Amino acid sequence: MTTVRVLVDAVGQYNSGDIVTDAPDGLVDIAKKEIRNAANGQLLAEIVDGGALDGSPSERELQLQAELEQSKAREAELLEQIDILQSDGELKELKASAKELKIPGYTKMSIEELKQAISAAGGGADGK
Q1: Residue 55 clears pLDDT 60, i.e. is over it
Q2: pTM of model > 0.85
Q3: Is 73 helix (H, G, I), strand (E, B) or coil?
Q4: What residues have CB less than 8 Å from 125, skipping those under 6 apart?
């Protein structure tokens, strides 16, 4: 059982774009022998149930690969946004603590700087 994709019009009873499952022997031979149109050199048909004859990926496989790469990039972007949102929440909590402890310049500090300043102020001022 061989599946063949017809690439040009009028190959036997088939037209361009037809995918013939359980293709007749003549159509399979055309695909296997890579017979081309005499006028323009275009390939008449190709076997599709095992990939292209030369072993290269089909258009659909390439499209799916591109979609997979886009999905992976989108996933990485979303994970980064989640990290930013989580760090924003942590930053807000640290700034609130620094404000209570009256740490000067806390609004311009990074998360690590805030943690150090809060630790230093909290330890030296007994949490006040």
Answers
A1: no
A2: no
A3: helix
A4: 101
